[in-house]
Design brief:
The complex is a heterodimer.
Chain A (H helix, E strand, L loop, with lengths): L1 H5 L5 H8 L15 H6 L4 H24 L9 H23 L1 H7 L1 H4 L5 H9 L6 H30 L8 H4 L16 H18 L7
Chain B lengths: L5 H45 L12 H12 E8 L4 E2 L4 H5 L2 H6 L6 E8 L5 E10 L4 E8 L6 E8 L13 H5 L7 E2 L2 E2 L3 E3 L10 E3 L5 H17 L1 H20 L1
Helix pairs in contact in B: 1-2
The chains are: A mainly alpha, B alpha+beta.
Chain lengths: 216, 254
């Protein structure tokens, strides 16, 4: 691994790959990728968290594997090879979820399978992994997965808290006695349209803080 | 080597597919047992919930062990019956659950349907009958627990594959299922099952509960499921009732 000796594993450049997706290059709020699964699985915090982890695993390893074999991939079947790698990883993740967190995998239902179609993954493979070494590609994949996961967890947090009055299944609002003074859960929060509005609010918040993101 | 030659592409694709297939089948085979166990545990948990037991499954550290223990404790018997009302020997009732649809796809006479018998801490017997039907978007299923008189509902549990969240999916909530408790399924000794009434059922109607508002088609699906599935148990219930009234009469005669 002489390549990596020239550059430390977590050099400034590599760290930037990992952290940029959190801020000004966030896949959901800036690149507007992966919205539909973000709307579907964030009614509760736990599925949102598991989904985030699954996507991080898939983005990270698919980028790394594609980068490892990038020199051998015949250009004409490039997309097919990428899809096979991504699909295989997604099936593995799905099988593992079914075996170890069965309840959550039932809630996520088809959306684990649909990670295959998540634009973030193909986007990162095409744009980054095909032209970079495995380690930076892995970091870029993980970074983008985490940027996606971060939004999922923020959404899951607010939607579960305001929509069901619980966090990770624990009845927070009931424990602090909010229902006794007449508070009622907002049923709209658990429906997908409200998730879209919440994403909108996050985008609004992010752009008001970072003027560079505002399109002319 | 020319990476764009057909030979290269075909060899590359074949090797890739073989490798991926090997990895996936290995994963599938090694995880299969755990996955099947999860499905069994879920069914056992549902049966237990329909008779109001095993409610702490989500709090305990080892859910599988807890459910297995509770199941062994409260489910005292299980058997299979046919539509003519006779018990069928040599059939594992629990194994029937894994493909209940197959039974309902058969002609009536060939169906073999499971019954589970539970006994709670006070010694009360309940009979749990699994039901299976079609909702709006996909299958719906459930377990209905009947008291010793084969008439009063002790509890129900419903599940669904893909009903609309907030509307049809409400059938899976405890609030909806609680309505069924204490309702009756027999009218003049015949199975009539339970109606899901749109606009709300009158409080004193023992044969109806409130339908899900905004989930009309799911409600219709659940209603049909109860009617169709319980109907198949009609003959069996009749036999049980006449047997028990027979013994009751004997007691009086003596």
């Amino acid at each position: 691994m002489s390549k990596q000796e020239k550059e430390p594993l977590f050099s400034a450049k590599n760290m930037k790959l990992l952290t940029a997706p959190f801020g000004q290059n966030n896949p959901i709020t800036v690149q507007i990728l992966g919205i539909c699964s973000a709307l579907a699985v964030t009614a509760k915090l736990k599925p949102a968290f598991v989904m985030a982890l699954s996507v991080i695993v898939v983005t990270g390893f698919s980028s790394m594997i594609i980068s490892l074999i990038r020199k051998g991939i015949p250009n004409r079947i490039r997309i097919i090879v990428q899809l096979v790698v991504v699909a295989a990883l997604v099936i593995l993740v799905d099988q593992v979820l079914k075996a170890f967190v069965y309840d959550v995998s039932k809630q996520l239902s088809v959306f684990v399978g649909l990670i295959i179609t998540n634009c973030i993954i193909m986007g990162r493979i095409e744009a980054f992994a095909l032209g970079n070494k495995p380690w930076p590609a892995f970091l870029d994949g993980v970074g983008n997965g985490m940027g996606y996961g971060m939004i999922l967890i923020i959404l899951g947090f607010f939607r579960e808290l305001l929509g069901s009055g619980t966090l990770w299944g624990y009845p927070v609002l009931e424990k602090i006695g909010l229902y006794n003074i007449g508070y009622v859960n907002n049923g709209l929060m658990i429906l997908p349209p409200m998730a879209l509005i919440c994403v909108g609010l996050i985008i609004w918040f992010q752009r008001s803080r970072n003027k560079n993101l505002i399109e002319k | 080597m020319n990476k764009n030659s057909n030979t290269y592409i075909i060899i590359y694709a074949s090797v890739m597919v073989v490798i991926v297939a090997a990895v996936l089948s290995f994963a599938s085979l090694s995880l299969k047992n755990i996955q099947e166990e999860n499905v069994k545990i879920e069914k056992k948990g549902d049966i237990l919930r329909s008779v109001g037991e095993g409610g702490e499954a989500d709090q305990v550290a080892d859910k599988n062990a807890y459910i297995n223990e509770m199941y062994a404790k409260y489910i005292v018997d299980s058997y299979a019956v046919n539509v003519a009302g006779d018990k069928v020997d040599g059939v594992d009732a629990f194994a029937l659950l894994s493909d209940l649809k197959a039974q309902y796809d058969k002609p009536e006479k060939e169906r073999t349907l499971p019954v589970f018998v539970s006994k709670n801490d006070e010694g009360n017997i309940s009979y749990v009958i699994p039901v299976w039907g079609a909702g709006l978007w996909g299958p719906v299923w459930g377990y209905i627990a009947l008291a010793d008189d084969w008439d009063t509902v002790d509890g129900v549990v419903f599940g669904h594959k893909s009903e609309t969240p907030g509307l049809g999916a409400e059938i899976a909530t405890p609030a909806f299922q609680a309505q069924f408790k204490g309702k009756k399924i027999l009218q003049d000794g015949k199975v009539v099952a339970i109606k899901l009434q749109k606009g709300g059922a009158p409080d004193d109607d023992p044969y109806a509960v409130d339908a899900v508002s905004g989930g009309t088609l799911t409600s219709v699906g659940v209603e049909n499921m109860l009617k169709d599935c319980l109907k198949d148990y009609d003959a069996f219930i009749q036999k049980q009732l006449s047997a028990s009234s027979g013994t009751a009469a004997n007691v009086v005669n003596q």
